[in-house]
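User: quick one, fold this
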Amino acid sequence: MDYIDYIEGQTEQNFWFKSKKRLINILLLKMNLKNLKILNIGAGTGADLDILNHYGDIFICDINKRALNLIPKDLFKEKKVCSATNLQYPDEQFDVVCSFDVFEHIEDDKKVVTEVYRVLKKGGFLFFTVPAFNFLFSAHDKALKHVRRYNKKTMYQLLNNFRDIEISYWNSFLFIPFAILRFLKKKSKPKTDYFNLPSLIEKVFLKILTVENRIIKNGYKLPLGLSLIGYCKK
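Assistant:
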């Protein structure tokens, strides 16, 4: 979870964050990976670490020291305060690098990908999520300090040094209402879309994203969505 999400009062019980964690687990399970050395870049408040810990030793880094200080020590092996454009690790150190909603925050995203490629072992995997469709860039993105959003074409271009690139959209069934909300707020002052939903709506939205996760688990790709998710291999 991003530090801005945290200070705005978001929790891991929000339907979006809960579903995203389940999706991350699905991606890792599909690759049948175990006993890994994993680097989580832009770890934020560490909301995904309980999932990642099932797969190996976790090393975390973030440019925000305050965010890292919120993460319990039992959830990681080592933490570093550093930029994703200058990872403080030797070459070919990790079996997996995770970048969950990180690339969009960084002006030089190509430098980040170069660094990820450098610290990955040959045959290692990058798992990622990013916000989709730049035409949806709005006050929400500005509040979260995003530089851009992505589509499949821009992600393939960004990851062109990798092989076996697999990408799908996510949060497809809720795309239209959230897209309308983003358009209405396009010229507003920076402010996130987060607000407290009635528990019934939270449960409905969680069910919807659970169905999407199941579709992705079964090997199907969604045609559009608010996010892009995927993995690739060095």
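User: anything notable?
Assistant: The CA atoms of residues 168 and 221 lie 5 Å apart.
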